[in-house]
Amino acid sequence: MPELAEVELARRQWAAFHGQKILTAETHPKARIYRDCPAPALRILEGKKLLSSKAHGKRMLFTFGPQLHLEVHLGMSGKLSTSSADHAIEKHDHLILRTSKASLIFNDYRMFGRVMLYDLADPWAELPPQPQDSRFSVAYLRKKMTRHAKKPLKALLLDQTICPGIGNWMADEICWKLGLHPAAPSGQLDPASVRKATRFVTLGALKHIADKNETASTDGFAPGSYVAQVPPKNWLFQHRWKKGGTCPKCKTDLARDTIATRTTAWCPTCQKP
Ligand SMILES: [Zn+2]
């Protein structure tokens, strides 16, 4: 599932066409991505310019006017891409916004993704701070870790109301970086260290994935193959997907189990319970 860096990379695909007027909004009305917003409503975007966009955690917001925004969630397998203006619709292309220069495409073969329209000035006014924001402070984390003291660290990191944008691989990377077992209760941990590791992994993921790739991979969202450029070999990332993967620090075989309902990889030597 795309996490904050893959989502930022997806946003940048469409952002290359800020300033372009949408000529037509073509939808696939039966697609599940329209479960919260009927497909014909998207025609309101026709004749409007794509003015700006931003990402927050795992969601993106494309702005077409002071009170007109399209929110996109990629879900498990959603993908944003661009193609020529006369792009022929392909299977799983559920939304195509055509401009005179390009087609902006939302393709999703599993359809856990979704779109929403907002007619508010700032639909994201209430969202929690992202790990890369200055508001994601030691005091903020201390408050959350105290309130959720029994929550395993991995579950805390995966909680989108606390650490928006962190998903399975980033949560494992943060626990490994900290040298902490993913099931360690949050209340017993040092918020300053958790913040430092969370920001290291977040800023590193943005650098290695959103900045170093030009396009999202076309070969789907198999684990670890979202993109051509990935974090370096001294990250857990490159080892966690491999059968028989070992810890990049101490070469111990990685352990795997379900923690916080997700398949979790960790080093039994570096991350003692
Ligand atoms: Zn190790």
Characterization of this structure:
This protein has about 270 residues and is of the alpha+beta class. It folds into 2 domains: about 5-120, N-terminal domain of MutM-like DNA repair proteins, CATH 3.20.190; about 140-265, Orthogonal Bundle (Helicase, Ruva Protein, domain 3). It has helices at about 5-15, 140-145, 155-160, 170-180, 190-210, 235-240; strands at about 25, 50-55, 60-65, 70-75, 80-85, 95-100, 100-110, 115-120, 255-260, 260-265. The chain has a 4-stranded antiparallel beta sheet with strand order 1-6-7-5, covered by helices on one side. It has a 4-stranded antiparallel beta sheet with strand order 2-3-4-8, covered by helices on one side. A hairpin with a 2-residue loop joins strand 9 and strand 10 (about 260-265). The protein is globular and about 55 Å long. It starts with a helix and ends in a 7-residue tail after the last strand. Bound molecules: zinc ion. Zinc ion (ZN) binds near residues 247, 249, 250, 252 and 269. Zinc ion binds near residues 250 and 267.
